[in-house]
Each structure stands twice: as C-alpha cells, then as structure tokens.
Amino acid sequence: MSDQTHDRTQDQAGTPASHDASSAKGWVVVAWAPDEFGAVALAHGVFEARDRGRGVLVVNATKGDALVDDRYAGPEALQQVERELAAAGVPFEVRQSVGGDVADQVLQVTSEVDARLVVIGLRRRTPVGKLLMGSVAQRILLAATCPVLAVKPGEQPG
Amino acid sequence: MGDFDLLWGGLQQAATPENLLFAAVGVLLGTFVGVLPGIGPAMAVALLLPVTFGLEPTQAFIMFAGIYYGGMYGGSTTSILLNTPGESASVMTALEGNKMAKRGRAAQALATAAVGSFVAGTIGTLLVAFFAPPLADVAVQIGAPSYFAIMLLALVMTTAVLGSSALRGFIALFLGLTIGLVGLDPNTAQARLDLGLPQLIDPLDIVVVAVGIFALGEALWVAAHLRRSPLQIIPVGQPFMGKDDWRRSWKPWLRGTALGFPFGAIPAGGAEIPTFLSYVSERKLAKNDEFGKGAIEGVAGPEAANNASAAGMFVPMLALGLPVTATASVMLAALQGYGIQPGPQLMTDQADLVWTLLASLLIGNLLLLVLNLPLAPLWAKLLRIPRPQLYAGILFFACLGAYATNLDPFDVGLLLVFGLLGLMMRRFGLPVLPLILGVILGPLMEGKLREALSISGGDFSGLVSEPLAVVVYAIIALAVLAPVVVSRVRGPQAPAVPASATDGAVADAAPESDDEKVGR
C-alpha cells in the first residue's frame, strides 16, 4: 500500500507552504485536522517550536476510505493554517497524505525528519467507540520515538 | 375513466398500514443507496430479491418501486452537495446544482430537486396509468415475430445507441445472452452450457447473477480502489425555496416532465438523454446569464426529467413485459420469481398487483417529499461512512441472498464467479445494463423466436411476416446506421453534444456514476 503524500511545498497555486524551513533546528510535528482538536494542538505546537527555534510540521492525514472526511482539510482550511503559521513567524511545512492508518502516517513523518516533539489533540472516546474505531492518539503515544504532547481543547499553552 | 377507478381502488389497497410501511422502507432504502455513489437501486433490488420468498408480490413491489424512486431522488443529493452523481441520470443535475451549492444555495437546490421529483413522479405515474392499459390492449394482439423484433429493438437501442462505445455494449450484451442460455433447452430439453455440472442444468438464478454483477463486482472494484482523497462536501441545513425560486422552478419541472416521460416510455429508455435535453433547453430558454454559475432552472428541469423517465419506464415494463433499465430488469426477474408471466396479459391477469403498484408509486412519491426534505442533512452524513464497513455489509447480504436461493454452497461459488466478471467489466469499461438485459430478456426472446419460427415451419421469412415487425426492423436499422452516416457526412468536426455543456463537471463526474457506469 503506497501512501500518497501531497507535499504542499510544490503547491501549484504557488503559495510557499514552507517558510525558511532550512533554518529550523529540529521539528515539532503537529497531527492536525480542521477542527478544535487540531487548533489546540497547533497552538501548543507553535508555542513549543517558537521557544526553541524549531520548525512546525503540520500533518493532515486521512484513511481515505470514505467519500467525505471532515478531518481532511480543504484548500481554504489549508490556506488558513498556512496564514496562521506565517503570522506566528516560525519555520513551517504543511503535509497532507492519504494512507491506511492515520497514526502510521504521522509516525512516518516523524521518522523522516528530525522530529523532537509530536503534538496531538485528544478526542473524547467512549470505550465502545475506541473498540470500534481504534485510537490514533494511543498508537502515536505508544509508537513515537520522541516525546508526545497530548492536549485537549481549552488548554492554553504556556 | 375506468382506469382511474382502478387506480382509486389501488390506492385503497395500497393504503393499508402494512403496505405503507413497506413503501416507507423502500423509499428510505432507495434514498440510502441513491445517495451513495456506486450503489444504485438496481443493486439494492437485487440484494432484496430473496425477500420475495417471504413477501406477497404486492408488498415486494411496493418496496421495490419505493427503492427505484428513492434511488432517483438520492442521486440528486450527492450531485448537488459533492459534485459526484450518485447515478448516471444525475450527471446533469450536478452541473448547475453543485454551482448553486457553492454559492450558498444548496438548500434551494435540494428543495427544487425534491419538489421537482415529486411533481414529475406524480404526473409520470398518472401518465403510466393512462397509457399502459391501452398499450397492453394493443400489445396482446402482437404476434411472436413482432414481439421478437421489439425486444431486439430494446436490446440494440440500450446497447449501441445509449452507451459510450457500441463494441463494449455488444460484448456486454452477448455475455449476458450467453449467461441466459445456461440450462435446459425449452423445446428439446438438451442441457446447454452446463459444463458437466448438475447444478447448471437449471437456468442460473437471477439473484446470483444480478447480485454477483452489481454487488460483488462493485465491492471488489471498490476494494481495488479503496483509498482516494476525500472530497469536500458543502454543508447544508433544511432545504427550502423562496417565492422567486418557486416562480423560476415550476416551468422547468413541467418541461422536464414532458421531455422525460416519453424517453422513459419508449423501449430504449434511460434517463441520460432526457436529462441532457432538459438541461440544454433550459439553458436556451434562460433569460439571464446565470447558467453556468448555478441557475435553479438547471436543477429543476433535469431532475424532473430524471423522475419522469423513471416513471415512464413502467409503461413498457407493465404493458409489454419489457424492462429498459437495470432496475426494471431486476424487478422483472422478481416478477418471474413469483411465477407471474410478464407481458401484455399482466394488466388483466394481475390487475390488483398492477394498480396497487401504481398507487403505491404515488404514495411513495409523497413519502419521498415528506421524508427527504427534513432528512437532507442526515443523508449528507451517509457520505462519511467508511467504505470497508459499508461494503462488508453489502457482501454479507450478497452471500446470504445467494445462499438462500437454493441453500446450496455452489451458488456462493457462482456468486464469486459473477463478482469477478463484474470486476472485470468495470475494469474494462463494459456497461452493466446490456448484460443484465441480455440475461433477463434473452430467454424471453428465445421463446418468441422459437414460436415465430415454428409457426413458419423454420423459415426465417416468418420473422418479417407481420408489418409491425418490418417497421421495427427498419427503426433498428435506422438507429444503428444513422449515427454512422451522420458522422461520415458531417466529418470529424461535428460534435453530437455542445462541448460547453459537457465540460469539466461531467468529465469529473462521469467516472463516478453508478451501476450503469460506462467509462471507468
């Protein structure tokens, strides 16, 4: 199974998705989706990165097995997140990918770059829901080779 | 108006709580499968064929009719919100509908589609009640040679004229006719194509063939293309229309109905042509230049044409026993499953069934409107169902249905064979409709051919012994030769369809169209 990765650096619209990425001293990988969980993870990721001069690598992944996935960002949401990151003044990159497992796609990115931290937004899951749908957060927590910061909506960075 | 008395009687029959329940189940199920691209009403009816073992014919057909109309309606939701037509007849709706939705008028687009479907379906059903009985009266007197010619016309038209490629259509048709040959020869009781297997001495069960081609084939195809980038859906609330929308919609509804019904009723039906014609005529009649940016007329017209042709299909189906769409052929198979002989005598032999069915179509139409306007946001949620879970469910019912026909594991193996055939057909772009028509019409045609030939003592001139047969053969020749001649005369630069109407959206949308998919 080949994971297709759309690196937003080569976006045909010509908008630079990465911003002086070479100056980053290691990366903070943010598992992001266009919702409140993604937003809080991104806020924490930017906060952690800015302090230590790290870059923010935003990963937006989907299993791609449904016709519609609300957690897979459309062009507008992607532009919005790029604007936010540019305004925050940190080096950044935004990646979107489609593959078998969302956690694997995030972990793949962390092993590819010099990842120092993974930030994830925790969703509320009932035991039954977890049994049925699994938990991306749990798999990232257990399998990541770097520290993982798990945040919930309402938690302010700092 | 004796017919309307009969229809009134049918309404009273259909309005029992139990029948209403089946109509509601059918309508909901039909919308469900219509909304999801790749799963059409034909697959749903095929999967439900085994329920006919336990249900009265009337109830089963009320449910199937609900599925058929519901499927037509459901396709429009996907077209409008996602630009991915749930079935081929909704391609034209997607053109303007999706643009309307992008401009924030999704609620109005859905509403005009729903009300237009209701108007067209109701008028269409009344027209069926008006046209089918006299046609059946005439059809009873048609002899075997003419009958054979009419069936041939239906096959040739759906195969050569409607599809994207005549060669692919004929490959599919002959595959279907071959499958239809399996079993004992009706006259001499010789076993044909039995491959030495005792299970193949009986004709193949249509449940196994239809479910294999529609359900298993689609599931395997989806499994081979499981992961795709998700599409962006346009959020929608409760559909509604303003005064201006009503004013702009009602004429396209009526024009669409007028275009759609005759195309559904001639034995070369299919909703693609009338929806296209309706779109083009609304575009021509439009006074402002809103077309191409989301004009409500471009949703109202094709959607009405779509449902009117869905209703028109019942005319040849009930009056001649001639199915012209995939769903109709599976419904005909269900009829045969009850031991009811389809054909002109159906209207008189099974008058109760026919009139209750027509009445339940009217009721189903009303239910569609009542249920679907408030439920639209819920239907949009269906598109978030992950494919593995969805198709696992379909496969479960497919295997259950195949096994239940004879309680023989051999049928499940056969199901797999037809599933692989369905996968290959999708892979090589063979249309499914000619195959399924071939399977179901093939044996009926053979019967008429044998009858005609035995009357004439084996002389082939017996096939043209009736004036009607000669006329029909002339129409067939015209239908096959005209496109060839026209393209020769006009040269390569003459496009049959205005390029502007078939740009972007159709090109994007067409590969996603449903059970009658042509060009994947």
Automatic annotation (TrEMBL), chain A:
* Chain residue ranges for the region called Disordered: 1-20
- InterPro entries hit by this protein: Rossmann-like_a/b/a_fold, Universal_stress_UspA, UspA
Q: Where is the composition biased (Basic and acidic residues)?
A: 1-10
**CDD domains, per database record:** USP-like (cd00293)
Query: Domain UspA: where?
Result: 29-152
Offer one Pfam family short name for this entry. Answer: Usp
Entry's family note: Belongs to the universal stress protein A family.
PANTHER family referenced in this protein's UniProt entry, alphabetically: STRESS RESPONSE PROTEIN NHAX, UNIVERSAL STRESS PROTEIN HP_0031
The name this protein goes by in its record = Universal stress protein
What organism is recorded for this protein? Nocardioides kribbensis
